[in-house]
């Protein structure tokens, strides 16, 4: 069955992958609060991999590059409920509750917030499930109350999360070399790479050529193949396990590019 996506409100949705694997390199404009009902989710970052199972809740921060892989598990489809925490509603929340002094003065580095199976947050998100039986959209007033409830709970569980939720700054200009060396495995457009480094597309390409003496696409392909080569040769992983995590979308294309670069197929054992 194909991917099913059901919205009961613009900011509240349920997704289901009945019998299929899903992979995407993502960069979200909003914070996403996610409750995993069934299945398994693997989130791959530049320097860490997180694995979440049924019942787990997490906050996926905006402006964070990651690869998301969703799998059915234990005979059950992959299902999750997701709530968007948009900047506009967060600003209203902090102002309405007299929390302006909590607004982040210094932009915090986005990072996953993992809440496991905390009963407060789990019950909040589980309470949304019956609403998906509605024939019409959830009224705005009720949706706003549920989102505000979730914000209250997240701040109760982790008071330090204000540094993330109350940071409304856009990415500023940063060093292109360090950023690209950490994030080259993510299959993003040049426009998004430019946005995350605080540059227009034209400026990004110009600065990239100056820093690396080649085009972004050639450099990205070489770096991804080198990472895949290391994973296969040194870590004894299978090509089918690594091609998605290293920025390739198609296994046959990966095999062709790998052989062109190293002179043998990724499935061959070379002494």
Compact summary:
The protein folds into two domains: 4-165, Jelly Rolls (Sandwich); 176-262, Arc Repressor Mutant, subunit A (Orthogonal Bundle). 37% of the residues lie in helices and 21% in strands.
Return Rg in Å.
21 Å
Describe the biggest sheet?
6 strands, antiparallel
Summarize the helix and strand pattern as letters: EEEEEEEEEHEHHHHHHHHH
Q: What general form does the structure show?
A: globular
Outline the structure in words.
The chain is α+β, with helices and mostly antiparallel strands and 271 residues long. It has two domains: 4-165, Sandwich (Jelly Rolls), CATH 2.60.120.810; 176-262, Arc Repressor Mutant, subunit A. Helix content is 37%, strand content 21%. It has ten helices and ten strands. It has helices at 87-96, 119-126, 140-157, 162-165, 176-183, 190-196, 201-212, 216-233, 239-242, 251-262, and strands at residues 4-9, 12-17, 22-26, 31-38, 40-44, 49-52, 57-60, 66-71, 78-85, 113-116. It has a six-stranded antiparallel sheet with strand order 1-2-9-4-7-10. Strands 3-8-5-6 form a four-stranded antiparallel sheet, with no helix packed on it. The protein is globular, with a radius of gyration of 21 Å. Residues 174-271 form the HTH araC/xylS-type domain. It comes from Pedobacter metabolipauper. This is AraC family transcriptional regulator. Keywords: Cytoplasm, DNA-binding, Transcription, Transcription regulation. One of its GO terms (molecular function) is sequence-specific DNA binding.
């Amino acid at each position: 069955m194909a991917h099913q996506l059901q919205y009961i409100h613009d900011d509240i949705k349920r997704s289901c992958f009945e019998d299929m694997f899903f992979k995407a390199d993502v960069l979200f404009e909003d914070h996403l609060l996610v409750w995993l009902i069934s299945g398994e989710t693997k989130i791959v970052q530049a320097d860490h991999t997180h694995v979440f199972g049924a019942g787990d809740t997490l906050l996926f921060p905006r402006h964070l590059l990651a690869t998301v892989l969703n799998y059915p598990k234990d005979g059950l489809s992959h299902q999750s409920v997701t709530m968007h925490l948009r900047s506009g509603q967060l600003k209203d929340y902090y102002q309405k509750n007299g929390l302006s002094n909590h607004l982040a003065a210094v932009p915090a580095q986005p990072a996953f917030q993992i809440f496991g199976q905390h009963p407060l947050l789990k019950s909040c998100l589980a309470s949304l499930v019956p609403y998906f039986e509605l024939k019409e959209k959830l009224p705005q007033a009720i949706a706003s109350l549920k989102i505000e409830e979730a914000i209250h709970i997240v701040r109760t569980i982790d008071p330090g999360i204000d540094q993330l939720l109350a940071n409304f700054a856009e990415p500023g200009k940063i060093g292109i070399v360090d950023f690209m060396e950490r994030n080259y495995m993510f299959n993003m457009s040049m426009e998004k790479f430019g946005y995350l480094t605080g540059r227009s597309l034209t400026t990004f390409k110009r600065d990239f050529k100056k820093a690396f003496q080649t085009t972004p696409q050639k450099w990205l392909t070489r770096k991804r193949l080198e990472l895949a080569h290391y994973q296969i040769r040194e870590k004894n992983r299978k090509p089918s396990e690594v091609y998605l995590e290293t920025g390739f979308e198609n296994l046959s294309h990966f095999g062709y590019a790998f052989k062109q670069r190293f002179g043998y197929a990724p499935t061959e054992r070379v002494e």
